[in-house]
Amino acid sequence: MTNSDQLRTALTLAKAGVPVLPLRAGKVPFGNCPQCADLACGGRPNMKTPGPCTCPRPCHAWAAATTDPTVLRSPQWAPAWRQAVSVAYHPGGAGLTVVDLDNTKAMAWAHTALPATRTVPTTRGEHWLYRGTMQGANGVRPGVDIKSTMAYARWLGPGTGTMTALPDVVRALTVKEPAPAHPASATVPAPAGGGECPHRTPTYLDRGIAMAEQRITEAREAVHATVYRTFLAVLSTHGRCGCLTATHTARLFTAAQAKGESPRHCMDAWTNALTTLGLSHG
Fold first, then answer.
1. Which helix (H) or strand (E) holds 226?
2. CB neighbours (10 Å) of residue 261?
3. pLDDT 10s digit of each residue in the chain, 282 long?
4. Of 60, 129, 168, 260, which is the most buried if we count CB atoms within 10 A?
């Protein structure tokens, strides 16, 4: 692809509402103003904000991605397009999340663990595209990166397959394992399990988790208390038979953290609920 072809591709994507930017060799963004040429401003290629330059707006990395054709054709960006070797886009700005699978093992994992969606071949693996955004993160699994908000991805074509909604299993990949409630405790308390299972279908459990997420999300006050009461309700119904999985817990913790709860607060509430119900180990 020639430099003029890349600019045409960028303009086509921008017209479709996809924020784009040029990349130089090594998949590195340009600094699109004299102060930031070759990142002389002190910025780094993948940083969240540019260096201490005096640009009127961010001029490199994901923050520079734009759908404005005037900016893309501007003299300020002309040197970058003359040297560009590829086009990148900001997935989060387009309402997308990219699961970047970097090798065959990562792809094999995705085919067993993730719902099917649109895929784009890459040099060594695949990009799996989902509708919806989340915080990007690198190294969530061996060979797996998440590119969405505050990240960029190379444009490698539209891909094939039907794009599906961003699933909870992908969101859970970036949820860090909470610290134990007490420093002396080496393991996270969990339901003891082993009781009679009242769940006739997986739908019953899924509906319960979804209702719990909604209850936390809709809390307007007393968030701490709401999170604890919701965890208590979930565990009292689903905590004795061993049906709850790490994915279910991650969904609840994610909802709580979206309301401002810290991972430590989440774990404290979870541990206290387990203790109240007599489900903690030890």
1. helix 223-238
2. 20
3. 556 789 999 999 999 999 999 998 888 887 766 666 655 555 554 444 444 455 555 566 777 888 999 989 988 888 888 989 999 999 988 999 999 999 999 999 999 999 999 999 999 999 999 999 988 888 888 999 999 988 899 999 999 999 999 998 898 888 754 444 443 333 344 454 555 566 656 677 777 888 888 888 887 777 888 888 888 888 887 777 777 888 888 889 988 888 888 888 888 888 888 887 777 654
4. 60
